[in-house]
Design goal:
This protein is mainly α. Helix content is 58%, strand content 11%. It has a three-stranded antiparallel beta sheet. Helix 1 packs antiparallel against helix 5 and helix 3 packs across helix 4. 15% of the residues are buried.
């Protein structure tokens, strides 16, 4: 297995080495399987996808259990359209309600209801157990620390600070 990068002409892509290709494919496989594992657990236990659970968690952690829709989209790393659809589904369940923003006629808040908070409290233990079983119980404390550092570096590099960046929550 050749692990040395192959110099490429200026107009050629910088191809992944064999070792980089293995790392990349392992990451994709693990991320896909982990998301599916957590999604299935939450669908089974609470009838909601993983992304909806994340929205409820963020609202529960926010002052007065409410957050501007634009901030919630930014947190979830999803488009405003996808967030609007998710909030509509959560409203139908009675877990979230929308409130108009008094200082901005176009703005809205998403608010976690008491019923939504109760569902979250009921669902959280099973979700935490699924996360532990799938990820943390498989890693040493050193590996956990390394994974956290690596993921922070990747996330920071993918969130440009300049105005006008093409990020999901701005679409």
């Amino acid at each position: 297995m050749n692990t040395a990068p192959i110099p490429a002409p200026a107009d050629e892509p910088r191809w992944l080495t064999d070792e980089e290709q293995l790392v990349w494919r392992s990451y994709i496989e693990a991320a896909t399987l982990l998301e599916d594992h957590l999604d299935r657990q939450l669908q089974r236990d609470a009838g909601m996808p993983h992304v909806y659970y994340g929205l409820l968690v963020k609202l529960a952690e926010s002052p007065r259990r409410r957050l501007r829709m634009t901030e919630l989209a930014k947190y979830a790393k999803i488009t405003r359209s996808r967030l609007s659809h998710a909030i509509a589904r959560l409203e139908k369940s009675g877990w979230v309600r929308r409130e108009d923003c008094p200082s901005d006629k176009r703005g809205q808040f998403a608010v976690l209801t008491d019923e939504g908070h109760a569902v979250l409290r009921q669902t959280a233990p099973g979700h935490v157990a699924a996360v532990r079983q799938a990820l943390f119980d498989r890693l040493t404390p050193e590996q956990q620390k390394s994974l956290g550092e690596i993921m922070r570096i990747v996330a920071e590099g993918l969130q440009p600070a300049e105005a006008g960046a093409d990020l999901p929550w701005l679409r």
